[in-house]
Structure formats: C-alpha cells, structure tokens
Write a sequence for this structure.
C-alpha cells in the first residue's frame, strides 16, 4: 500500500485566460449575457419610440376639426393635438361666467372671462372667451354674458391642456390665477353626474367688451425625441458595463491568486 506524497504546488501562477475559462466564471459570463440582452432590448424599445415615423403634417393644427374627434370627455389631450383648432356647439350656463386673473395677451397682463359650454347632455367644456385689461372690464363683460341667459353658441378656437390647480392668494381666496378645469368645475352650477373635458377651449373670437385672445399656432415639433435617444444610449452603456463587470471580477480573482502564489513562493 502506497501513500501519496505532499501536494506539489504549481510552478507558475494561473494565467488570466485560465481563470476566465473556469466553470464559475463561464457561468457568470452567461448571466452577464442575459442581463446585457435585456438591456439591449430595452434600448431598442426606447429607440423605437424616439422617432415619430408618422408625424402630423405641417399646418395640421390649423385645420378646424370637431371637438369630439380630437379628445373625449375625461381624457388627456394627446401631445400632437395640443393647440389644435376645433369647433364646438353648445349652450352657455348663465351662472358660470368666471373671471381668471394673471392672463397675458401679447405681453400685457389682464384677465380672461371664462364660461361653461354645455356641448351635449350632461357634458361640458371650459371656454376662455376673451381678454380684458382690467377686472372691472372683465366683470362687466361676464355680467352681460350672464344676462343673455342660456344662449346657444358655436365656438371655434384652440383646445389647450389644463394648467393645473394652484392655491389662491391669501389676499383673495376666491381669485383664480390658472386656467384649471378642475378649479372652475368646483364653482360651476348643475354639475351632478357631469362629464367634463380635461383641456379647455380658447375662443378665436371674443364677444363684445373683450379682446381676442392671442393664440398663435403651436410650434412644429421635431419628429425625434432626443430624451428617448439619450435613454437608449444609457441602456447600451449598461449592457457594456455588464461585460466590464464580469471582466473586472475575473481579473480581481486572478490577481489575488497571483499574489497568493508569490507570497507562498517567497
């Protein structure tokens, strides 16, 4: 019966290639391949949404369309349709002509007179009818519109996103400084089970006593969304980092083995 002698240490330290070909690091490489593949797919998905392959034609927002063809009650306005010219028929609610302050018209500060236009049974949209330089003028115009009663109207103008709610100033808790459908709805009458459009309509022509609201066509946007392109590039960097991380870990393990070999040899 023979006995094995003491284990003979290797004459040379392992090479980096030998360490990388070990099952542990091959398994880690396969895991990195999966992670990089997911990152690459996410980058491709982001890039596909960075380029609008069917942008709206130049001047499309200037073609007057029916309001219900552009947006439905309760829905957000699609980005390409911001500032779209639309036409709406309806009846004014006499009690709901409300003045909104901090409105600028060609750089001049003033006020808007707004109203609730009932465009269908239990369906309304907020309308900015016109601009006034002073609150007295705006209040007078709102009073005249209210005196006309539930008059029928055909409004042509631009449909614009709601500006959101803002806390009123302490000096006047009833003052509205934003064109917010939600804020106006809280002051409207006969709102039980009422369907309301989220965006508002800026009328192209103002009634008597008010000035037309300055509402130029929206700027033509680039078909390329550079923010999405940036995100796609980030995913590519993440995919490359997965391979670098594998290489760095394997190299660190190899360097530790070389140091241990040198210490034992010394």
């Amino acid at each position: 019966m023979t006995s094995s002698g003491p284990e003979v240490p290797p004459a040379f330290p392992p090479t980096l290639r030998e360490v990388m070909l070990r099952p542990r690091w091959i398994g880690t490489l396969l895991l990195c391949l999966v992670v990089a593949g997911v990152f690459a797919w996410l980058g491709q998905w982001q890039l596909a949404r960075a380029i609008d392959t069917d942008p709206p034609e130049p001047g499309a927002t200037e073609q007057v369309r029916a309001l219900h063809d552009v947006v439905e009650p309760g829905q957000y306005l699609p980005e390409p349709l911001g500032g779209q010219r639309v036409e709406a028929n309806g009846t004014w609610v006499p009690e709901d002509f409300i003045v909104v302050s901090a409105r600028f018209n060609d750089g001049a500060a003033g006020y808007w007179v707004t109203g609730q236009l009932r465009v269908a049974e239990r369906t309304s949209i907020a309308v900015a009818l016109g601009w006034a330089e002073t609150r007295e003028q705006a209040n007078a115009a709102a009073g005249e519109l209210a005196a006309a009663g539930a008059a029928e109207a055909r409004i042509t103008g631009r449909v614009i996103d709601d500006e959101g709610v803002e806390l009123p100033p302490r000096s006047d808790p009833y003052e509205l400084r934003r064109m917010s459908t939600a804020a106006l709805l809280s002051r409207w009458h006969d709102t039980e089970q009422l369907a309301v459009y989220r965006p508002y309509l800026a009328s192209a022509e103002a009634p008597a006593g008010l000035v037309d609201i300055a509402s130029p066509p929206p700027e033509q946007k680039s078909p390329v969304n550079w923010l999405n392109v940036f995100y796609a590039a980030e995913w590519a960097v993440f995919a490359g980092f997965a391979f670098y991380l594998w290489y760095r870990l394997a190299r660190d393990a190899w360097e530790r083995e070389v140091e241990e070999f040198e210490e034992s040899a010394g």
